[in-house]
UniProtKB/TrEMBL annotation:
InterPro entries: ABC-2_transporter-like. It comes from Streptomyces machairae. The keyword Cytoplasm does not apply. This is ABC transporter permease. PANTHER family: INTEGRAL MEMBRANE TRANSPORT PROTEIN (PTHR36833:SF1), SLR0610 PROTEIN-RELATED (PTHR36833).
């Protein structure tokens, strides 16, 4: 617990340093946040263009797809804000600057995660939250206490699952060192995937996203329960509430992968 406390404190101090740096130029900060908001919003514009030609997508209406989109974009935005800098690890190992992190008396993971903390990524969270705010009242759902509580659970657990994927991807870079794009395929690619209904994909692909890399528990599985939509794989009803367990398992596996990768690191030799 003390080690975790040290990591959180180090993360807060490093992130605070980058926030103060970004806020030095307020106008530039506002412009970059707005630019990030507009650029990420183009994803939903593409969905709107699709629905200008069709009434449903894989049997899902526009408000239902907006619900999926908002959950995925907001959860990923939280992870991208907190752990999005993990993809620079390969570059640090190649230029030797990663070695400087190893000699500091704070957890390496906290240093890498907070490195170049980018407040502009708030634009992605804002954009996803706006779409979710529109989709929630627009969907035709008989809201119960369980369904209402499941929405914030999806956001928190989805963010944790994406954070675990960021850490696991960084751990893979200890082996490949130049694999940032491979990591991005599962993080940025994963959130784009989850913005569309599972019914538009083949069942074998859905099985992989559910049981191998369980991104489906970010929104597909619990959202199907909320919207009273049958999940393509016919999972039991309790699976909709399994996101916290999946998040814990993903974090544990990502932690093991990170420690294994860190132990295998042998420096640049320079």
């Amino acid at each position: 617990m003390s080690r975790a406390g040290e990591g959180l404190r180090a993360y807060r101090l490093i992130a605070g340093m980058w926030i103060r740096s970004a806020m030095t130029y307020r106008a530039s900060f506002v412009v970059t946040v707005l630019g990030n908001l507009l650029v990420t919003g183009l994803d939903f514009v593409a969905i709107l263009l699709m629905f200008s030609q069709v009434d449903s997508l894989g049997g899902w209406s526009l408000p239902e797809v907006a619900f999926l989109y908002g959950l995925s974009a907001t959860a990923f935005g939280i992870a991208d804000l907190t752990f999005g800098s993990m993809d620079v690890l390969g570059g640090r190992m190649r230029d030797g600057s990663f070695d400087t992190l190893l000699v500091r008396p704070v957890p390496v993971l906290a240093q890498v995660a907070a490195d170049h903390f980018a407040v502009r990524r708030l634009g992605r969270i804002t954009q996803g939250a706006l779409v979710l705010g529109w989709g929630l009242p627009a969907v035709d759902v008989d809201w119960t206490v369980a369904k209402v509580l499941l929405v914030p659970v999806m956001l928190v657990c989805g963010g944790v699952i994406f954070c675990a994927v960021f850490v696991a991807g960084a751990a893979f870079q200890f082996l490949a060192q130049d694999a940032a794009e491979v990591q991005n395929a599962f993080t940025y690619g994963g959130t784009t995937l989850l913005q569309y209904p599972p019914t538009v994909f083949g069942k074998d692909f859905v099985r992989g996203v559910t049981f191998v890399l369980p991104l489906a528990f970010v929104n597909w599985v619990p959202a199907s329960y909320v919207l009273e939509r049958p999940y393509p794989l016919g999972l039991p009803p309790w699976a909709a509430f399994a996101s916290p367990l999946v998040a814990v398992v993903c974090c544990a596996l990502a932690g093991l992968a990170w420690r294994a990768g860190l132990r295998s690191y042998r420096s640049t030799g320079s």
